[in-house]
Design goal:
64 residues, mainly alpha, 81% helix, flat
Length: 64
């Protein structure tokens, strides 16, 4: 749960930065939001979730 909240927070911060810099128009942000909701309710959602979890485990296991 903490990983998904962190990813949502990171993507939200990036979206705000892009909106403020003019690199992301509000219409594009809405399309991305709708795509996320559609992907979450599709059959691809478990694969996306497991891929994000595996990536978070790899990054969490790195030691400098």
């Amino acid at each position: 749960m903490a990983v998904s909240i962190s990813v949502v927070l990171l993507l939200g911060i990036l979206a705000v930065i892009f909106l403020r810099n003019g690199g992301l128009k509000p219409s594009h942000a809405i399309v991305c939001l709708l795509l996320g909701f559609c992907l979450a309710s599709s059959g691809v959602a478990p694969a996306i979730h497991s891929g994000l979890t595996a990536t978070a485990d790899i990054v969490g296991g790195l030691r400098p």
